[in-house]
Specification:
Four copies of one chain form a homotetramer.
Chain A lengths: L2 H17 L6 H8 L3 H7 L3 H16 L7 H9 L3 H18 L1 H10 L4 H28 L8 H21 L8 H15 L5
Helix pairs in contact in A: 1-2, 1-4, 1-7, 4-7, 4-8, 6-7, 9-10
Chain B binds a DNA duplex (21 and 21 nucleotides) through helix 3.
DNA sequence: AATGAATGAGACTTCATTCAT
DNA sequence: CATGAATGAAGTCTCATTCAT
């Protein structure tokens, strides 16, 4: 990937996150990237292709830790308790979001409008994640650390709590009243208690 | 509001929800509404004004039950337990979303891009909601039905769980494997357990 | 002429003078006149017709004193000297302009773009004026008060000097350095001296 | 300046002069220039900017001879008499108008509607012209070739006479009864006589 | 590989005019 | 007579994309 190409991607990521894909013009991207308009189309045949060059890998990166080959074998053994697992994953994903908030925004904003992105997200990725995480959760269930709910539901409840935390964090970033440490602990405590099997 | 005006709003709501505000052209809206394009601009001076005529009231409607004057006085007394309250609110908002999913999508999609909408959402509405709900939650805390967490955090945890349920429901609407009754009960059980004060 | 009609004309005169005919919209006129848009078209079938209802009489009014039936017979006798005549006409036309500057601006602005106005101005009016004024000037020439130049040229020289004075006056209306009395006297002195027959 | 850009300017000059700025559409200009409409807006962001790209330099060109650095020093010495000076300037400006009548028309037509043009005309240019010409006229006054009138008034009287001649010339261009040589001489004779100091 | 002038389809918007009320 | 909602043609301007250099 040439230097200009990198600058184009970087500029596009910023602008798409800022104004949305549809409201961003290729000429703005070119200007911010410091390249000629034509140069964009030398590397990406269409504006959509540029979006996909950003969004498709972003989907993968967002779910990266769950896709590692070692996830099933190695990590599974590593985490003795669900709490350990949850803390590890939350820490890892939050730190990722801090560094890649633009990618996250782009994926979330554009997912509803691009069936191909949805397909990727759903079929390819989500199935892998659920399958792998399913094994892990089954083990935690057997250990009496998770209730006997469908794995999909448990994942959803975890994800929504963490996403809620992430969004609130983003919105309150500059507010002095946001005690990040406490909010994160509250969220984790909530999830753990909510997922405690009833005796 | 004339007949044509209603048709314009209806068409715009559908298209904005479907393709997003920026990707929807006024000529498409006119065509779907069965009016001349000029007619749109007789009623709404700009496309943005048309969006606001839809989104601003939608923000209010989405939060309507929390804004009722009676909310504080009447409902507060009515709900003996937090569970009753949670069930009532969830049922009410989910049924609202079923009937107004387009409005919901528009607000969620456009909120990040329109500071005026954000302001409305934040300052005017959010403050009212939090203030009122705060009083209610304080009472539940005194009754030992909620943990001693900040009201903002409790609201966030409830909202994220319910929104996660709503989104999953929307995505899986046509899937036969989605057992709505069970998912909703699971979600409520999760929230209730997660918010049980530690003895 | 109904009340509304008068208000329409008045509003149109103001706006045409202010922004120009082409740049003024009928809806603006309607708004300023305090009538509905449709009302304008009940009285004037087209926007152009509204312009003509203003401009055509304005052309006549601008040249009014030269069109009076009495001009040839009565006035001719009245003015013993060219200076008397010049002073009378200048005073009369300047006071008219003060009261009807908008009409004047409209005629001047639109004359180049409307052949029908030009035709009116040229054929109908200009010929009458020149013919009548020609007789007067011939008499002054015979009296040795005007040089033996073509009447058209003399009229042109008088008109351009007076118009130059009128325009400068308009532009400097608010300037304190504009000594109107002196400027007018200078202009008249200039014309009179310029038109003194060479011994 | 690319070839297309030149064609755009040329077409715009013709059409603005012919129909007026407000009544000329950018699509007409594009058609006459033989370019796509979008091309106009690549070079001039708005229609107004296109007008200014024409009118602003035109204002300068119209007053060019009075702005030359050499005007004060060189020409002042060169012209022994006011008559020489007047004849030179008239010949120069008339020949300029013959070649640039469209520019002249545009400036005159649009000046009343564009405060920025007026400002340029007034502040920047007029002050320079008056200042320079003032020095020249003071010298002619000292030589007893001009009356003791304010320089502004003298300039106005000269300009209005010449402009009146130019306009009449333009209107009668095709008329066989227009004897240009005689009209010009009459005009100059009128100005010279009108500006003769009273003994 | 890179440029940026050129394109033309289509975006939003304005406007003179009509017509049912 | 008066209204003002409705129209659709036309206006200005934007944009993704192409192509000669």
């Amino acid at each position: 990937m040439t230097d200009k190409q990198a600058r184009i991607i970087e500029a596009a990521v910023q602008m798409f996150a800022e104004k949305g894909y549809a409201a961003t013009s290729t000429s703005e991207i070119a200007k911010r990237a410091g390249v000629a308009e034509g140069t964009i189309f030398r590397h990406y045949r269409t504006k959509k292709e540029l979006l996909m060059a950003i969004a498709a890998p972003a989907v993968v990166k967002l779910l990266a830790p769950f896709l590692l080959r070692e996830f099933r074998d190695v990590l599974q053994a590593e985490y003795a308790s669900f709490e350990q697992f949850l803390r590890a994953v939350v820490a890892n994903r939050i730190s990722f979001l801090d560094r890649n908030i633009s990618l996250f925004r782009i994926v979330v904003q554009e997912l509803p409008f691009h069936p191909d992105l949805q397909r990727q997200f759903r079929d390819i990725v989500l199935s892998q994640v659920l399958e792998r995480i399913g094994g892990l959760f089954d083990r935690f269930k057997a250990m009496g650390q998770l209730p006997d709910w469908p794995n999909g539901a448990i994942v959803r409840l975890c994800v929504s709590a963490v996403m809620g935390y992430a969004v609130a964090r983003m919105l309150n970033r500059s507010s002095p009243s946001w005690d990040d440490e406490r909010e994160r602990e509250t969220t984790i405590a909530f999830v753990l208690k909510g997922l405690t099997p009833s005796s």
